[in-house]
């Protein structure tokens, strides 16, 4: 217990060093964030949004902190915040929930940040790809910060890949702040393929303007312990958001997705489809809240969480929530937890399909519904292959990784 | 081909089959008739190895092999096929992928190379015509949105793809209109060879007009109580089962 102690001491000792490696915008909010973290400590399972993940246990090992500077290949739209083409003060640590302890800790410890900036009315055809490689020769903590700014009328596809390059214990905190302004569009894919010794705490905050649209896909193909928080604030009329998730857990992996979609103005639309397949001893959790403010009339919202427990020892927790203060809305939610369809298995086996293969086909079919919705076609095709490989047990190492070969 | 001796089986705690003995030789068609709940479907499910059914006594050999020691898929690889009474939907698994997995699994078990994609599609096309099945159905998920008749045709189509030597038609005629019945029955007949044997379960004479049985068995209360030739089916169609029950009493 009380694993926050070592992080408090870390900041007291290394705070100045971190500041020296960082920049003014980030340092401006650092001490306050640290004060918040010091006051609150890590959230316990008693806190509603953290009840499915033991944060204290995840942060208790002794990690060295990584202060390696970001390496960015010079490319359009991607910057180190130190070289930002605009003043990011109005965006940095603004949409993020500064009261969240993980976000506060990240804000205190992070020294470098990535900015993706798509200027007004710019339509970016090719996807912007961010490849994250966790590296370390000893157990390593990495704090990552990303700022996405899609200005008015702009459009972009962003793919964030997560890998680990070394067989090491890793702890990652990540805060992603996303601003999608009026009439702008963003397709955001987060794909995690990390080894079992990785713990991930990712908080993503999305703010949308009028008639904007966002499609976000959180894909956990392989992991250790994952906790993804995603908050969406619909602040402009006519905004539309799709939050999808695909989570595959086996062995003793844990995947916890916690989402909030906050309808603050009228005529916005939100869709949500999260699917899990948990096998062996894996544990999955999904909690999603749709919050509709009093003035947010004509809101339409659909939230679906469907889960397949492929073994009797796998566990799934699901908690869809609607909190509605407006009286002219159309909102629905539903969640299911099912087991393998024995009748379908028998039918396939009678046709000669071996049981293992039949199970793979059924799991794949179940997850296919989420992958079908991925708009960027090359990625969709790639994920069909990856998901199938994952179910066949062929994705225990990262396929692109030189070190794993 | 198939030899069943003193077979007892149960579902849960309920004993359904109470001593079935039946020999089916190469090329023979055996019709199985009987009242609802007599055990006809149970017998079929036990032969193909449905894990929901438990054999408590007796034996089944298939071409000399101990069938009860084989897994469901091994039985399929050995050439056993069942046309399901109520074929189920498998959302998300396309007919093509399903069929490819099934055909290649059997080929692998028989020590053959998997079919090349073009060859496989060519065979699909040929066999589809046999039961007049629409190409559109092949792009759908297995049985998803299929009508009752389409599902039954699909069963015979799968039979055509897998070329079994022993088939069970479990009420393949139920829910079919006259034309569909003819197409399905004729499809089955075209697939038959001198070695193909079958058990045909039906409540009606009509199917047996197309698929002429060598023997007709009447199953009541988990036992075969009467065996005859095709004329017995005609007699049951006219008179029902009561006279057989009375004979037994």
Strand arrangement across the biggest beta sheet of chain B = 6-9-10-3-11-12
CATH superfamily of chain B, by name, is P-loop containing nucleotide triphosphate hydrolases
How many helices of chain A? The count is 8
**Biggest sheet statistics of chain A:** 10 strands, mixed
Q: According to CATH, what is the topology of chain B?
A: Rossmann fold
User: Roughly what is the average pLDDT of chain B, rounded to an integer?
Assistant: 92
Distance between the termini of chain B: 33 Å
Tell me the series of helices and strands of chain A, N- to C-terminal: HHHHEEHEEEEEEEEEEEEEEEEHHH
Instruction: From the alpha carbons, calculate the radius of gyration of chain B and give it in angstroms.
Output: 18 Å
Mean of pLDDT of chain A: 94
Low-confidence stretches of chain A: none
Shape descriptor of chain A reads: globular
In terms of structural class, how would the helical and strand content of chain B be classed?
Answer: alpha/beta
Strand content bin of chain B = 25-35%
Our estimate of the beta-strand percent of chain A is 35-45%
- Seen as an oligomer or otherwise, the chain set is heterodimer
Q: What's the total count of β strands of chain B?
A: 12
